[in-house]
Specification:
The complex is a heterodimer. Chain A is α+β, with helices and mostly antiparallel strands. Chain A folds into 2 domains: 99 residues, no CATH class; 90 residues, Fusion Protein Consisting Of Minor Coat Protein, Glycine Rich Linker, Tola, And A His Tag, Chain: A, Domain 2 (2-Layer Sandwich), CATH 3.30.1150. Chain A is built from 6 helices and 4 strands. Chain A has a 4-stranded antiparallel beta sheet with strand order 2-1-3-4, covered by helices on one side. In chain A, β1 and β2 form a beta hairpin. In chain A, α3 runs antiparallel to α4 and α5 crosses α6. Chain A is flat. By secondary structure, chain B is mainly alpha-helical. Chain B has one domain. Chain B is built from 7 helices and no strands. The longest helix of chain B is centred in the last third of the chain and has 60 residues. Classes of the chains: A alpha+beta, B mainly alpha. At the A-B interface, α1 and α6 of A face α2, α4 and α5 of B.
Chain lengths: 259, 223
């Protein structure tokens, strides 16, 4: 046999080392990039339940002539009157100007009844009275407006409802519906659980009392998790007083416990 | 990073396996790149030198300059066999080309043998690239399937099907497929590239063998 020329693969070890170094560098680069990236902001998802509006009186803030409210009807004509009252200082002048020709004509017709000085004085008095009445009306309207805007939404000018139409109970129920949709789990056929929840003045869930058990542990855990989850978004109750609500949880969802 | 650390043990094992595949395949890619690049360059230079030279012994004296070329291996094998044939016939070292046709067969066999050994050497490790290219996506997919199974199991236990619960599990699972593809794509591309380059070198070796035998035969006929 002859001396065959055979080549040994030199350099494969160096290539392994280079490859390992490249991988390590890429890994470290990605880790560095990941650590320097700003944390992803989790945008809160808002669900709007258009079927079950979270208000007690959905017509609140809506102009309605059937509401039996006596104020809406006169209000629109008065509202344009308010801005008209602003150029009041100009009015007496124009009134005086317009009033003068009839006065002169009247004076011309009956010069013996009263002198022009007396007439002018009477006219000025009447104008002052009208001016005072207008200012009083404007002030009254302004006070009413401020009073209505004081606590939030005031609705449209001819609205039949007030801001009280927005129901805290309905809002809490909608939060519970949303949370329960995520957590619902059950093993029994038709589970039903009644829970009474107590929300303190700061909007924190202070207590939850099971009034009626479903007998399905999975369902009960899911209900309690839903309440805990929803309680993260509870606002303070109106008037900052303890709020209490009985809720029925079943397979279909959440409904208030009417007792 | 959190996705990898938070994954299950099976997914972690899959990721480690894929990382091994990736490291080895990139080592082979680097090695083969250097090897094939040198083989091509030195083969071209050797062919120039071969056609410029008039005598085999002159070429044999300087063949070490082209050590990375597969053609030099062929030349060494062919020339060595030729010398043996000549020595076997009792001829002197100087009349290396004065031999009979039986000796040419020996030289031809030696060249074929050298060609085969060079093809084997050039194609060494390429099998691993092919294996990586074809199996890494499936290994990654296995990790993903396992991860999704685990995620769904967790969803079943917690009883919550919200996106916040489902999404992290699926993201952890999908990282396995992503790394599988990262390992496979360069391996497949490199495999195809090197196959093409090696095919060119094999053609060059076949041509060189034919030319070598032609030269030997012409010299014998000329005597």
């Amino acid at each position: 046999m002859g001396a065959r020329t055979s080549k040994v693969d030199t350099g494969i070890g160096a290539c392994f080392t280079a490859s390992a170094v490249i991988h390590m560098a890429v890994f470290l680069l990605l880790a560095w990039y990941g650590s320097h990236m700003p944390p992803m902001k989790i945008q809160e998802t808002y669900y709007v339940d258009v079927v079950n509006l979270p208000v007690a009186a959905p017509r609140a803030g809506n102009p309605s002539p059937k509401a039996g409210n006596s104020q809406p009807a006169p209000a629109p004509p008065k509202t344009p009157a308010a801005p008209m009252a602003l150029p009041v200082p100009a009015k007496p002048a124009t009134a005086a100007l317009t009033a003068k020709p009839p006065k002169t004509s009247a004076a011309g017709k009956n010069p013996s009844v009263e002198s022009s000085a007396e007439f002018a004085e009477r006219m000025a008095k009447l104008e002052r009275q009208a001016e005072a009445r207008q200012a009083e009306d404007a002030l009254k309207r302004l006070r009413e407006k401020v009073k209505n805007q004081g606590s939030g939404r005031s609705g449209m000018p001819a609205a039949s409802g007030k801001e009280e139409g927005s129901s805290y109970e309905a809002y809490i129920k909608s939060r519970l519906i949303d949370a329960f949709r995520d957590t619902i789990s059950y093993n029994s056929k038709n589970p039903r659980m009644v829970v009474r929840i107590f929300i303190d003045a700061n909007g924190k869930l202070s207590r939850k009392k099971t009034e009626s058990s479903s007998g399905d542990p999975a369902f009960e855990i899911s209900v309690l998790r839903a309440i805990d989850l929803a309680s993260e978004k509870f606002p303070p109750p109106p008037n900052h007083r303890m709020f209490e609500l009985g809720v029925i949880f079943n397979r279909e969802g959440v409904s208030p416990n009417q007792r | 990073m959190a996705l990898i650390l938070g994954s299950s043990i099976i997914v972690k094992l899959v990721l480690i396996l894929l990382l091994f595949f990736s490291v080895v395949s990139w080592a082979i890619i680097l090695f083969k790149f250097v090897q094939v690049h040198r083989a091509n360059g030195e083969s071209d230079r050797f062919m120039d030198f071969f056609w410029k030279s008039k005598r085999f012994d002159t070429i044999a004296a300087q063949v070490d300059r082209f050590a990375n070329s597969p053609l030099t291996v062929l030349f060494n094998e062919g020339y060595g066999e030729l010398k043996k044939v000549v020595e076997g016939n009792g001829a002197s070292e100087g009349s290396a080309l004065s031999t009979d046709l039986g000796g040419i067969e020996n030289v031809s066999r030696a060249l074929r043998r050298a060609t085969n050994s060079e093809i084997t050497r050039l194609e060494k490790y390429l099998t691993f690239l092919a294996t990586t290219g074809s199996t890494s996506p499936f290994i990654g997919l296995f990790g993903t399937v396992w991860g999704i199974m685990t995620a769904f199991e967790g969803i079943g236990k917690t009883g919550s099907a919200s996106l916040a619960v489902v999404a992290p599990g699926i993201a952890e699972a999908l990282i396995a497929t992503a790394i599988g593809l990262v390992a496979a794509i360069p391996a497949v591309m490199a495999y195809n590239h090197f196959q093409h380059k090696i095919r060119v070198l094999i053609n060059e070796m076949d041509s060189f063998s034919t030319e070598f035998l032609n030269i030997v035969q012409r010299n014998i006929s000329g005597k």
